[in-house]
Design goal:
single chain, 141 residues, mainly beta, 7-stranded mixed β-sheet, 2 helices, 10 strands, globular
């Protein structure tokens, strides 16, 4: 069983092989993260020493030619784009409310926007080849 952890709920997983949601699964099979944007499944995971971006049921390999951008659209709406070379291969709109980052929520002083902003989290991984390498080195599944 290959599991993706929910970006929003720590004890919720997606069984990537069956495309079923599982609660409280064994995280030793965890290979990445997922989040539904509306009804579309998005995610990032590693498999067979390769890092992949998941959109719906399609997996896109992430390599040196892949890049991502996030930019504000209006209010709490942001646009995430994934490009190969300079060609956009997918984009989606998502919501992020910055109020979650207020001091009242952060009792540790270590919260960062990336901890809550799915698009920013994804773009940081896609654009940071050293981080991708660390993910592959530390892979469990």
């Amino acid at each position: 069983m290959r599991l993706l952890r929910s970006f929003d709920r720590r004890n919720l997983f997606l069984d990537l092989d069956a495309f079923d949601i599982v609660e409280g699964a064994d995280s030793n099979s965890e290979i990445g993260w997922f989040k539904f944007i509306g009804s579309v499944l998005t995610g990032i995971y590693h498999f067979n020493n390769e890092l992949l971006f998941l959109y719906d049921k399609a997996s896109i390999p992430l390599d040196a030619l892949t890049s991502a951008k996030v930019f504000p659209v209006e209010g709490d709406t942001y646009n995430f784009t994934l490009s190969i070379e300079s060609t956009i291969v997918l984009d989606f709109l998502y919501e992020f409310n910055q109020e979650i980052l207020c001091e009242a929520y952060d009792t540790t002083g270590f919260l960062e926007r990336e901890d809550f902003d799915w698009g920013l989290f994804l773009s940081h991984i896609v654009n940071d080849k050293a981080r991708q390498k660390r993910m592959l080195i530390n892979q469990k599944g």
